[in-house]
Amino acid sequence: MSILEVKNLEKSFDNLQVLKDISLKADNGEIISLIGSSGSGKSTLLRCLNRLETVDSGEIIVDGDIMVSTLNGKSVYANETVLKNIRMKTGLVFQNFNLFPHYNVLRNITEAPIFAAGIPKEEAEKTAFELLDKLGLKDKAEAYPYQLSGGQSQRVSIARALALKPKVLFFDEPTSALDPELTGEVLKVIRSLTSLNMTMIIVTHEMDFARDISNRMIFMDQGVIVEDTTPAELFNSNNERTKAFLGKFHEAV
């Protein structure tokens, strides 16, 4: 059974259509990378899946709960109870960390479990310390974001997303704000999460990483899904648009 299903999703900004009839499925434990040039629609798709953007029409289903459907050609979102239930099942790692600057690391991680999910403080902190230990940050619980490197900040962001034990974890270009050395550090952490058997949807420009970690790769161009296939098949594609994109990547490296 699919834990995430998207059907015929459409999204426009003013008169510019950025998502055109997008449909995809993700199974439990599956790792999917979304790739494509800037402006292809991949980040907008991720934001729609997290309700940071509203869709014009289409359907999104998360673990059996309908987030949004279409009635008379317009999107209709579920009530707040259903939407909160969906939020508890999903996590998002932003490209620019989005940590609360006035909270220390421990509170950044425990804020949502305590105040959104109603988890007792002692239990939330126990989980937070376990995550910090797993991510190599056990000595940073009392530190504030300004005292962290970019790589450490992103690892805290990952810990915060994991604290609610989501079924689906989204990454929006998690290394775009990092220098090459710190990029490797964060990618190593993301690779370590594969043992959790959690569905991950990753928007990334790191092609080697995407090829190594993904069960499937989705190539988007001009708001449509051009290919949705295995990494091996994608990198050997005969599709001209795919070949042109991957060719530019190889030229860059």
UniProtKB/TrEMBL annotation:
UniProt keyword annotation of Nucleotide-binding present: yes
Gene Ontology MF terms in the entry: ABC-type amino acid transporter activity; ATP binding; ATP hydrolysis activity
Name listed for the protein in its UniProt record: ATP-binding cassette domain-containing protein
Domain ABC transporter span(s) in chain numbering: 4-247
Superkingdom of origin organism: Bacteria
Coiled coil, from the record: none
Keywords associated with the record: ATP-binding, Nucleotide-binding, Transport
Family, as annotated: Belongs to the ABC transporter superfamily.
Residues spanning the membrane: none
